[in-house]
Amino acid sequence: MTRILHILDHSLPLHSGYTFRTRAILEAQQAAGLEVRGITGLRHAAAGSDPEAIDGLTFHRTPGTAEGLPGLREWREIGLLASAIERVCAEWQPDILHAHSPALCGAAALRVARNLGLPLVYEIRAFWEDAAVGNGTGKAGSPKYLLTRGLENRVVAGADAVVTICQGLREDLMARGTDPARITIAPNGVDLSMFGEPLARDPAFAAKLGLGDGPVIGFIGSFYDYEGIDDLIAAMPLLTRDHKAARLLLVGGGPCEEALRRQAKASPAAAAIKF
User: Fold this and answer.
1) Do residues 252 and 223 make contact, with C-beta atoms less than 8 angstroms apart?
2) Distances in Å between the alpha carbon of 268 and those of 34, 101, 205?
3) Which residue, of 49, 51, 111, 139, has the fewest CB within 10 Å?
């Protein structure tokens, strides 16, 4: 039976879109008759055993700490993760390494893949340097931005196959020179079976929120610039022109909340936008 070791930034029991996608991938591979395990790097900030069994999945952890100046610290982080991967490989003997972004995970996995002669799949869920610019923690063109981008390109070039979540990221990789035949898209999705039967509409609750009879466009998540919530708000005057009862419901919060609230308040469709 084929064994796949997933190299991860963090995992369950932490809850995030990253960990939920990981769980779905591992469970789907198990259902397909594959054996799977995961290993997390130093950024998995949750106490637990090593290995740790969660929801029928096994996760190994990377011990230790990485210190030093920026750049050197990340290099040491890659080294510690690579050593931990090699220990799991010696014990469990995986057939394939499947690394998930960020590039720190990919770089550690690439080092081990070359040392042990294992095939490497690298999955990119976002370009983390661009995400940092989008959420205000990074600056385009900075040394950190360029180093992160360069490391990502190196991992992509060394991987046997590349997976990403959307056409936009695929086109970005192609623009960097990656052969499109090496790139597979596995988009995010929702397993509706986990949610049971849809609830009936609650007119009283809809009235309390000021939603009327709808239709309602909803966003539930973090208010970051790269989510494009400003585009939703900008589209509402056009939408309500043809569908007067339409409403936009925004649930969540984040760095862009204040700016989005100002934009909504100034919109000709302000009455149709609810936070």
Assistant:
1) yes
2) 54, 41, 25
3) 49
Q: CA 146, 152, 153 angle in degrees (round to 5)?
A: 90
Residue 37 has pLDDT above 80, yes or no: yes
- Could you tell me if 108 and 41 are in contact, meaning their C-beta atoms sit under 8 angstroms apart? yes
Is there a contact between 101 and 128 (Cβ–Cβ < 8 Å)? yes
How far is the CA of 223 from the CAs of 45, 188, 237, 258, 270, in angstroms?
23, 19, 21, 10, 18
The mean per-residue pLDDT over the stretch 144-159 comes to 92
Range 151-167 burial, b when 16+ CB lie within 10 A, else e: bbeebbebbeebbbbee
Average pLDDT over residues 81-101: 98
pLDDT of residue 222: 87
Rounded percentage of the chain residues whose pLDDT exceeds 90? 77
CA separation (Å) from 104 to 38, 74, 124? 15, 7, 12
Integer Cα distance of 115 and 135 in angstroms:
36
Give tens-digit pLDDT for 51-77. 999 999 999 999 999 999 888 899 999
Residue type, 126: A
Helix ranges, the chain (H) = 17-31, 72-92, 103-116, 128-134, 143-158, 167-175, 203-208, 229-242, 257-266
What is the rounded distance in angstroms from the CA atom of residue 77 to the CA atom of residue 234? Answer: 43
What is the C-alpha separation between 181 and 222, in angstroms, rounded?
34
